[in-house]
C-alpha cells in the first residue's frame, strides 16, 4: 500500500512506486474505477502515478461532495495537460475556484441568459438550425450515412449564433476545419490522460503532444479571430451577442482588469467546445439506440405524431404532453453517460467525505458513470429501456434522483438548460420527420462507446427515410 497523506484517508488498492495503480486500468477506465468501488467502498483512493486521487462513487457520496460540501470541493486541480493550452487556467471550465472566477462564471451565465440561454426565446434559434439539418437529411435519404459530422455542425451553430452572432454554412471550409479540429482535440485529450500523471512517458509521446498543442492553438486562434472581428465593428448601442456583451463590460471595468481578452478567448473555447461535443454526442447515442431498438423508435414516433402531427415541428410547449419521448431521452442520457467522470475537482481546504479525511489539494474524480450504471438502482443497467423513466399507468414521466448527467453544485454544467432544450427539440424533430434504420445487412454497431474526454459511440451508419414521403 502507498503512504496515505493523512490519518483516516480513504482506503484504496495497492500501487507500484512509479506508475501507481495504473495497472488496474484499461481503456475503459470508467468501468474499472466503478469495479474498484465494490472492493474499497464509495469513496476510495488511487495512486495515479506519483499523485494520489480520491474517486467518489454513488449518488450519496457524490451529493455530499458536490452539493452539501460544494464549497470545499469546487476547485479544479493542477493539470499538466490543461497547462499546455491554458497555462493560467483562464476561462470557465479550467478555472481555479476563487472570487474572480466566480465573477467570471456569473457574468458569463447572466449574459448567456440575456441572450435567451435556457429561455424559450432560444427556441426559435434552435428550430431554425434544426430546419437546416432536416433539409440536409432529406438530401441524404436512402443511402447509408454517418450522421456524426453533420450533427456536430448543426449543434455547434446554435452556440455560434449566441456567442459569435452568426451561423456558418455546413459547407464553409473554415467552419468544417474548426469543428473537425475540436473533435480531434477532444479525442487526443482523452488519450493523453495518463501523461498528466506519468511524466516519464511524455518524451515517448512527443508527436501526440505536438498534435494536441496544434489543435488547441487552432481553436484558440479561431476564437481570437472572432474577438478581433467584433472589436473592429463594435458599437456599444448594438450588443448582439456574447462577445459584444463581454467587450462592453470590459469597457465598464474599473481598476480590476479581470475581463481580459485572454479570459474571453478561453471562455469562448469553453462555450464552443462544451456546447458542441456534448449535445451532439448525446444525439449520436440517441440515433444509435433508436436504430438498435426500432420498436422504441416507433413508439416515440407514434407519441409525437399523436400530439404534434406531421405538419409542424415539436415545440418546447409540447414537452409536457410527450412523457414517453422525454423518458426515452433521459434513458439515452443515462445509458450514454457521455461525461462518465464530470471534470476533475479538487479540495479547496482540509475537509472530509463519507467519514474520511481529505487534505486540501487532493484531486477528486467524480464517477457519474457509477450513478447511472448501479445495478441496485438500475436493474440490468446495460440494457436500454425507457420504461425506467416512464410511468405507464399515469402516462407520466418518472424522475429519479440517481441521474446526474450535468453533474451538480458550484461547477454544474453551465449549459444545462440550453442542452435540455436542444436535446428535446432536435431528437423529437428528427424522429417526427424521419425513420432511422440500420443499412440492410449491416453488423449491429457496438454500444460500448470510446472514452476520450467524453464517451462517444463508435462511428456507425444509418439509413434515413422521410416519414411522410
Ligand atoms: C448534453 C449536453 C451536456 C452535458 C451532458 C454536459 C455535462 C457537463 C458536465 C458533466 C460538466 C462538468 C461539471 C463538473 O465538473 O462537475 C460540464 C461542465 C460545463 N459545461 Fe456542460 N454539458 C452539456 C452541454 C453543455 C452546453 C450546451 C454548454 C454551453 C455552452 C455547456 C457548458 C459547460 C461549461 C462552461 C462547463 C464548465 C463549468 C464549470 O467549470 O464551472 N455544457 N458539463
Automatic annotation (TrEMBL):
PANTHER family: CYTOCHROME P450 306A1, CYTOCHROME P450 508A4-RELATED
The keyword Iron is annotated on this UniProt entry: yes
Domain of life: Eukaryota
InterPro entries: Cyt_P450, Cyt_P450_CS, Cyt_P450_E_grp-I, Cyt_P450_sf, Cytochrome_P450_fam2
Keywords: Heme, Iron, Metal-binding, Monooxygenase, Oxidoreductase, Signal
Name of the protein in question: Cytochrome P450 2U1-like
Keyword Protein biosynthesis: no
Any single Pfam family the record assigns to this protein: p450
Homology family: Belongs to the cytochrome P450 family.
Amino acid at each position: 500500500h502507498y503512504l496515505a497523506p493523512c490519518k483516516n484517508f480513504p482506503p484504496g488498492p495497492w500501487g507500484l512506486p512509479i506508475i501507481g495503480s495504473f495497472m488496474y486500468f484499461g481503456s475503459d477506465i470508467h468501468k474499472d474505477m466503478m469495479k474498484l468501488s465494490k472492493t474499497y467502498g464509495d469513496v476510495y483512493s488511487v495512486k495515479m502515478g506519483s499523485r494520489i486521487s480520491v474517486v467518489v462513487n454513488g449518488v450519496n457520496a457524490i451529493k455530499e461532495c458536490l452539493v452539501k460540501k460544494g464549497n470545499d470541493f469546487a476547485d479544479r486541480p493542477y493539470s499538466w495537460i490543461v497547462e499546455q493550452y491554458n497555462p493560467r487556467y483562464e476561462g470557465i471550465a479550467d478555472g481555479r475556484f476563487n472570487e474572480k472566477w466566480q465573477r467570471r462564471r456569473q457574468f458569463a451565465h447572466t449574459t448567456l441568459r440575456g441572450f435567451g440561454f435556457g429561455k424559450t426565446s432560444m427556441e426559435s434559434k434552435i428550430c431554425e438550425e434544426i430546419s437546416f439539418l432536416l433539409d440536409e437529411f432529406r438530401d441524404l435519404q436512402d443511402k447509408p450515412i454517418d450522421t456524426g459530422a453533420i450533427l456536430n455542425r448543426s449543434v455547434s451553430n446554435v452556440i455560434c449564433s449566441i456567442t459569435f452572432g452568426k451561423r456558418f454554412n455546413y459547407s464553409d471550409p473554415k467552419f468544417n476545419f474548426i469543428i473537425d479540429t475540436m473533435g480531434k482535440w477532444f479525442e487526443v485529450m482523452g488519450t493523453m490522460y495518463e501523461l498528466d500523471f506519468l511524466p516519464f512517458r511524455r518524451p515517448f509521446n512527443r508527436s501526440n503532444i505536438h498534435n494536441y498543442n496544434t489543435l488547441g492553438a487552432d481553436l484558440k486562434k479561431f476564437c481570437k479571430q472572432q474577438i478581433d472581428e467584433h472589436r473592429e465593428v463594435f458599437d456599444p448601442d448594438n450588443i448582439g451577442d456574447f462577445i459584444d456583451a463581454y467587450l462592453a463590460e470590459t469597457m465598464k471595468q474599473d481598476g480590476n482588469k479581470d475581463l481580459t481578452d485572454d479570459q474571453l478567448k478561453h471562455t469562448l473555447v469553453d462555450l464552443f467546445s462544451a456546447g458542441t461535443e456534448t449535445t451532439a454526442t448525446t444525439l449520436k447515442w440517441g440515433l444509435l439506440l433508436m436504430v438498435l431498438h426500432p420498436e422504441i423508435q416507433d413508439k416515440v414516433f407514434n407519441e409525437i405524431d399523436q400530439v404534434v402531427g406531421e405538419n409542424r415541428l415539436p415545440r418546447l410547449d409540447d414537452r409536457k404532453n410527450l412523457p414517453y419521448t422525454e423518458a426515452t431521452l433521459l434513458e439515452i442520457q443515462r445509458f450514454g453517460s457521455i461525461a462518465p467522470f464530470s471534470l476533475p475537482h479538487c479540495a479547496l481546504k482540509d475537509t472530509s467525505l463519507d467519514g474520511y479525511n481529505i487534505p486540501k489539494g487532493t484531486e477528486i474524480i467524480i464517477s457519474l458513470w457509477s450513478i447511472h450504471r448501479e445495478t441496485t438502482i438500475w436493474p440490468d443497467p446495460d440494457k436500454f429501456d425507457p420504461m425506467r423513466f416512464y410511468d405507464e399507468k399515469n402516462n407520466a414521466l418518472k424522475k429519479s434522483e440517481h441521474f446526474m448527467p450535468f453533474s451538480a453544485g458550484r461547477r454544474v454544467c453551465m449549459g444545462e438548460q440550453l442542452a435540455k432544450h436542444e436535446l428535446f427539440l432536435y431528437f423529437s424533430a428528427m424522429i417526427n420527420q424521419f425513420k432511422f434504420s440500420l443499412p440492410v445487412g449491416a453488423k449491429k454497431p457496438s454500444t460500448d462507446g470510446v472514452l476520450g474526454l467524453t464517451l462517444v459511440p463508435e462511428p456507425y451508419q444509418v439509413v434515413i427515410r422521410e416519414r411522410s414521403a
